[in-house]
Amino acid sequence: MWARARELMGSSRLFGSAVITQAVLSLGNLLLGMSLIRASTEEAYGRYVLGYTLLALAIAVPNAALFGPQAILCGKLDADARRRWVSRVSQQLARGCLVGCAAVAVLMGLLPGLLLHRWEDALLGASVAVAAAVSIRREHFRAVLYLSRLPTEVLKSDAVYAAVAVALTVALATLVPGHAAPWVMLGLALAAGLGAWRAHRTIGERLGWAPDDGQNRIASLWPLGRWALLGSMINWSFVQGFYFVMVALIDVRAVAAVAATRLLLMPVNLLSTGVGQLLLPMAAGWFATLGGAVVLRRLTLIAAGLLGLTLLYTAVLWLLQGWIMGTVLGREFDDQSTLIAAWATCFAIGVVRTTIARAAMVVERFKALSGLEAITAVVSLGVGSWAMMQFGAVGGIVGLIAGEAVGLVLMAGYLGLLRRQGVLGAAPRQA
Length: 431
Known about the structure:
Elements: H1 2-39, H2 42-74, H3 79-116, H4 119-147, H5 151-175, H6 180-206, H7 217-239, H8 242-249, H9 252-290, H10 292-328, H11 336-362, H12 366-391, H13 394-420
Helix pairs in contact: 1-5, 1-9, 2-4, 2-6, 2-7, 2-9, 3-4, 4-6, 5-6, 7-12, 8-12, 9-10, 9-11, 10-11, 11-13, 12-13
């Protein structure tokens, strides 16, 4: 009993640290977005959102293909084996980011300028490439610290990143309000670099880096990562990519309105993400020692807790929306109440779906998850495109709600199937 109590207390401290970390990031993102909304034009803020959407895509690729599978595989290894794994992945990733940054900077930077003579778009594309390369390194170091059960160190690194990012954004949004997007991206690159440096130093001091063993660890992660990557790309297409559909069907100012109201709900997303980064390696450990039934039960309880926090937060947000939009953000948008309500519904469903989905990740069902994400994306983009033509900007969120709802039903059904098949069956007797 006492061992169980100590385990619960330890888990609570770990999750608490992860939550605080995400609170810091959430506050930083909120202040960053507020600075841009207050100081820049709607067009400039909309362009920043599109650039940040591409940055999110770049970060999502290694998160899905490398860091998620790494958490699952390394969560089952001892400390020495884990150190060899993450050290080699870090070495391979450093070279890949350098080459990829150069190639993407040329593709997204020079070509739009030379062919279309849209040099501001060229600068934005190049700045996104630089920010992506540095941010991927930072994300890997964060994943290593979470894998090693050091969320407090993640907090310290993220605090450096958030402070620098907000300070630079405030300065740049004030200096170049109409052309802030590319310069803010470069500011984010600098902030991510400082955060990555802090995390890298901590890993060296607390865990140690292993010598280069020459093994292609990234290739070893690919059998799992390829399906996770496909699912992540599909997820991005409807969760983030719909902004580009909105630009095509409406205009960039619609993107600004939708993104500004979404910003208010980002603490929910960041909470879910932060808990999830710590949760995946923990769930892998639970599966190895306690069995699939325990994993499914614990993830369901955590999903219920996150849903409760989401509803509580959105209730407070709804009551304070007038003051937040008018006074804090300094700008109000048409149909903002409808947009906030729609986003709240979308995030409430999504936080449950993504949390319980980790049960399927732990048992390495990435191919099936990709298929479920594909169905979700088709529903979301199909409904969203139709709804945007009928109802304007809010239609894009309607599409997301439809996709999340269908995805949750499908995910619950699939996990039920895995339970009946015994994959997520009864816990071992010794548990």
